[in-house]
Amino acid sequence: MQHFAGKTVLVTGAGSGLGRAIALAFAAEGASVVAAGRTAASLEETAALIEAAGGTAAAITADVTDSGLLRDLVHATVTRFGSLDIAVNNAGILRGTVPAAEIGEEDWDAVLRTNVTGVWLAMKHQIAHMKDNGGGVIVNISSNLGAHLRIPNAAAYITSKAAVSALTRAAALDHIHQGIRINAVSPGACAAPMSLRPGETEADRTERVKSENPLGRVASAEEVAAAVLHLASPMAGAMVGTDLVIDSGSSA
């Protein structure tokens, strides 16, 4: 069965890693998928992978820090596929991996602008459409770093993702009465480029995490994507403001 047949799904940050895995997973379940992000070439690759597997996709460039582009992204999605039923706000960056007082102001601003304001702006325009068109579902990608776990030398990222977790819950309460169900997924390290340390290979990461988390391995991008699909599905219809942590037990 294709559980999302007839649905249109918008995924930001869909050009690689977790965002691409989420886009592929929704397409495999029958959704028409808009892969959005800043780099046209990687988005086109995601769309091509979906289409090669028999799915339906479009690649649209947009920067989540630009409100006008996000408004246009929602409009383009609806124009192309007729609706916007589900949005996954995945775009995010990691910068300023030094002690808190040594973070450059430019890095701090960039992380907060992309990871927090970008999610808020995306929801702002997604909700504006959904509330007038029968509701919808939004899943924000947060992190186990933030509300659930802290580590040294990641203060900007931790602050931004704690804010995403709080923003998700607040927005969920504000908009559930409009038929818009909002939740978050908070992955730990997963099999995506962002979890690699500088100079680290995937094999190096595999060895490192054997002793770093209770499960002894990182989650696959597909495992995280499966959680996103669950939250977006009718089976999770009573889940409102949930922040679902998938981190191999790191923050247990």
CATH superfamily label: NAD(P)-binding Rossmann-like Domain
- The appropriate CATH architecture is 3-Layer(aba) Sandwich
Oligomer category:
single chain
Largest sheet: 7 strands, parallel
In whole angstroms, the N-to-C terminal distance is 34 Å
What's the total count of β strands?
A: 7
Instruction: Give the number of domains.
Output: 1
Describe this structure in words.
By secondary structure, the chain is an alpha/beta fold. The chain has a single domain, classed as NAD(P)-binding Rossmann-like Domain (Rossmann fold, 3-Layer(aba) Sandwich). Helices cover 42% and strands 15% of the residues. The protein contains seven helices and seven strands; from the N terminus they run E-H-E-H-E-H-E-H-E-H-E-H-H-E. The protein has a seven-stranded parallel sheet, sandwiched between helices. Strand 5, helix 5 and strand 6 form a beta-alpha-beta unit. Helix 1 packs parallel to helix 2. The longest helix is centred in the middle third of the chain and has 26 residues. It is globular and about 45 Å long. The model has no long low-confidence stretch (mean pLDDT 96).
